[in-house]
Each structure stands twice: as structure tokens, then as C-alpha cells.
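Suppose a classmate hands you a notebook page containing two proteins, each written out with its sequence and a corresponding row of C-alpha cells. How would you begin to make sense of it? This section walks through that situation. The first entry is reproduced here exactly as it would appear on such a page.
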Amino acid sequence: MRSPLNDLPKTALGACYAIFVIYLLLPLALMMAMSFKDANFIAFPISNWTLDWYGKVLQDKQFIEASVYSAGIALATTIGATVIGVWIALLISTEGIRGKAILFALACLPAVVPGLINAISMRIFIRMVDIPTGTFAIILSHTVHAVPFVVIMVLTRLRSMPANLVDAARDLGADAFVAFMRVTVPYILPALIGGMIFCVLTSIDDFVRTFFLGGYKPTLPMLIFAKVQGGMSPEINAMATIVLIVTAAIGLYAEHFTRRSRS
């Protein structure tokens, strides 16, 4: 299919691409550069470069505790969202099930509802069922938000799966569970890993839901937000740079794993 962009000059397309890359990467580059500034304020030029702020961050007890806490929430969220998401995807892909479109729409609804609305509704819900704010409430909210990503990725993979693979396994004597574990799971594994990575990244990055449902123990976004209230500093930039590098590494690994599995 011919795209309307094909009629544009290559120089115009190149200029648009360059502007987009600059718009995307320049703020990140400035943030990372400021994390090496030797003075305790944000401004150019940078007369001397230092790694002291990174050493201070890595020795910050609050940062380490918040990172471990956020990682634990992300792990629990990923497990819950993966189990629920795979179950919904399998249900939608099963023949003879009525109302698939409605089920798919309901499963994807948390991804399109604004985060603020979702957080307020979850806050009302946990009060009605007498669930205290804190870790469990955060995990519950993050899981609801992460399920659509697993459903979409796994369902897309399931729809490309030849139906005769499972039938062949059943004909060879495998029961439904064995056929699922040895045929279906290996086939959907790239999508499963991709969905799990999305769950981890969305949970670690989530601020609005955590703000409404969290207790006194801060997650990493909450800690950075609290520090920003006292003014920007190279230490905050160093924290943000560490988070950026870790999340980017996770995303790149997921992309590499998915490509290798598909090939």
C-alpha cells in the first residue's frame, strides 16, 4: 500500500525525522548531562564533571528502599496480570465462546480509562470493601492497569497459532494440560515475555495510582516527586538517569528476546 508520505521529498522526511529525534532525546540528554554537574544547582555551562552524585544516590538508604519496594510491587503486579491476562486471552481465542468482542473491550478498558479516574474509582472501591491503603491496594490497582497489555500481546500471538498444533499433541496422547504447557506456552512465550516487561515498566513508572492508593512507604516515583518539591538538583537527575538506564535495558532485552524467539 502506497503511503501519502512517499510523495514528500526525502529531505523533508529526513528533516521531520531529525526534529522528532531531537524532541524525543534532547530532554533526556540534558537530564543526564546535569547529573554530572559538580555544583548543587541546575544550569549551564558545566565547568566540572563528577560522578559524586551517583555515589550519593547509591548510598541513599531511601533510594535503595524505594527501589526494592517498587521492584517487589512490580513483580507481584506482573505475576497477577500475566495469570489473568493469559486466561482472558485463551478464553477469547476459544471457539464457540459468545460475546468475545464485549469481553475483549472490557479487558482492555483499564488501558484507555484516564489514570486519574482509575485511581479515584479504585480508592472508592477499596474503601467499600474495607481494604486499607498500602502495598496490596497498589498491587491491585497496578494489576488491573497491566492486564490489557498481556491480553493484547498474547491474543495477537494466539491468533497466528496453527490450530493443528494442539490437535496433533492431543492425537499423540497428551492431555489438555500437557498440550498447553508443551505446545501453547512455548508458542506464545515471546508475547508473554513482552507482556510481562510491559507490566514491570508500567508498574515501576506508575505515579497517579500509587499516589491515591499508597500508604506511608514511598515507591520510587513517589520518592523522586517528594525530592523535587524541595527543588531540582543533580542528585535527582542522577536518580532519574539510573531509572532510565535500568528500564531501557529491560526494554531492549525484551525486544532482543522477542526477535530471537520469533526467528
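The notebook's second entry, a different protein, reads as follows.
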Amino acid sequence: MGIPRFPAFVVFWAFGHAIAAGAEARIWRDVDGRETRALLKAVKGQEVILLKDGREYSFPLLRLSPADREHLEKIRGREEPRKALSPSLQGKFPILSDKELAAAPPISVELLEKAVVSLANEVRKAHKISELRDIKEIAGIARAHSLDMGSRGFFSHYNPDGDDPTARARKAGFSGLVKSPDGKPRPGFSENIGRVGRYLSIRQGKRNEKVVGRTIRWQTEAMIARQVVQGFLDSPAHRENLLDPSKAYFGVGIAIVREHVYVTQNFF
């Protein structure tokens, strides 16, 4: 009985290999039938980057309609004929069923956020940089963005309304933009975003070419927190934000949407 192994995936902003952008704007549709007219800029890892009205928007490949995923396969095939398509472009990335999700062990968002905060400050302390003060108001802004990404199916520092992190903080009425807690002038928010899977791996059992069951290895809060912080450290841009000595405050906001864990760190 064969047992193929599907590793969990991690996607962080600006990770992955890009393909060339499409020459003309076209209509893109998601799995819910929503449409937008935009240029294809790149495909990075599990994300497609679209350019609309001079702004970049990032969307999960699995949220695109089957026709649009097929369109991307053709582009990838023309530009990289000798390279195998990624699982996401082939539409074979494992998606959990409602029954499997119902059997998943619960994840405490509160504990997970605290774990990410603690690990982030441990890293700063190890680099002899002052720890960041966790601000509840900033965490609320970060959490709202994570939930928005999961709910509206995008993955970007800009939401579909065109708001960047500082604009989102302003709309939320963040008082620090008028006067920071320490009285020092601070230009605005910097941000890290990430997305990881709730599971570490899936083992799929087969007998006579038929699937006879799947065994899912779920992640704990501690495992997810380590994966998130390490992912940020492995990316130069995210690492720079995390270790920026000019930042004194931050907030971590997390949202769980089906098998995905969306993470936003806002620094101020």
C-alpha cells in the first residue's frame, strides 16, 4: 500500500519564483465567481500577483477559477517548458474536507498570538535589540487584516480597497498616528504577513490505486509559532522589519480560515 506524503506549505510575501507578466489586462475570476480586470505581473510560490490601477494585489492560486489556473499553466508551459508545474498550478494541492476540519484539534488564537509575540521578542533580545511592547490596539488592527485576507481571499499588504497598513490603522482610529505613546515622531506602520497550514503533513493511503484514507498530522500552537517566526527570519525583508531597532511597539493578529493560518505583524 503506497503512502504518498504531502508536506505542509508556507507562503510569505515576496517568496517564490516569478514568471513573466501577461502583456494585456484580462478578466480574472475566483472560485466564487467574483471578477476583476487586471494585468498578470507574476506567480510567486502559491500566489498570483495582479496589477490593477497601478497597485499590486496578491491572491492564493487555489482561489482562482479552474479556467484561470489552466491559463496560468499554459503561460508557465510556454516560459518554462522543461520545468514541472508546481502542485498548485496543477490543481493537486491537498485541500481538507469539512469532515477532516471538524476533526481537527482546536487552536487557541490567543495562545498562538502570544507565542509569536514571545518568539519575536526572544529573537530581538538575542540580537541585543530592545524588545517590542505588545499593544492591544495594534494587535486588533493586525488581526482584522488577517481575517480580511482569509475572508476575501487575497494575500497582500494592500487590501482590495487599496488600503496599506498605515491607511488601515488610520481608518481604525489608531491614536498613535497622532501622538505615539513615547512622544517620538513615527511615520507609520511597517508590516509582515504570512500564511501557514494548520497541518504539518498528510499521509494518503492507497490500495489497488484507490484512496483508502488519509492521516493528517496537525500542528500545535507552538509548532505554528516557530514556523511563522522562522519564516520571517529566513526572508531578508521580513527579518529587517522584525529586527528594526527604530520600532518600539507592535501587534500580532492571527485568523484561522479553514486549513490556513493567516498572520499579520504590524510594527510602529
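A careful reader of the second entry would note: Residues 1-23, 77-93 have pLDDT under 50 and may be disordered.
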